[in-house]
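Appendix B. One record, verbatim.
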Amino acid sequence: MKKLSTVLMAAGVLLLGSAAMAGAPKVNVCHIPPGNPGNPQSISVGASAVPAHLAHGDHLVSAEVCDGVDNDCDGIVDDDPGGVGQACTVGVGACAEAGAVVCVDGARECDAEPGEPTTEVCDGVDNDCDGVVDEGGVCAPIPCNAETCSTYKFGCGGNSNCICAETAEGGGVCVDGIVFCASAVPCDLSTDCAPGEACQVNNCCGFSFCAPLCH
């Protein structure tokens, strides 16, 4: 009787152990058959078997990413990986161009090409694409001998659109001579104007207004 109880107890332990093993979660592994790497197979194995699979070149099945690996084990490398197609930008300043993220040789990159830099001018834009806007003194006012409405001559500073105007602070600077009085912004001082402008007095409009500086 004692021997029968022992046998039954052992059988119960075995059954419990088998049930526990049966209930253990499986791990999805992308198995690369030896000699046939182009035919990967997604298989489920116990956790204890994973190290052996990884040791001979298999990998865990996961969402596809751009890394040169067939992560989702569908036989295609980097097919529709996450992040591809998102908007991206290359270059800075005036050279910045928009594109989309693509996967090339296992690496994500932007498919846009940056524009070509140009000479820096005073326009609030990083024309030469070095990360700095309007550097190198390009926005410095060009001093001149101030004129009034009746004596304005175009050509100030070598620019055919510019005249030498008197500012509210005294002295003269080259400003854009083509201004429409109806839309001109009145001012008392140049500090009332936007960057790149000066308060022009004794002009043809009859009131002081903000005039764009010539550079």
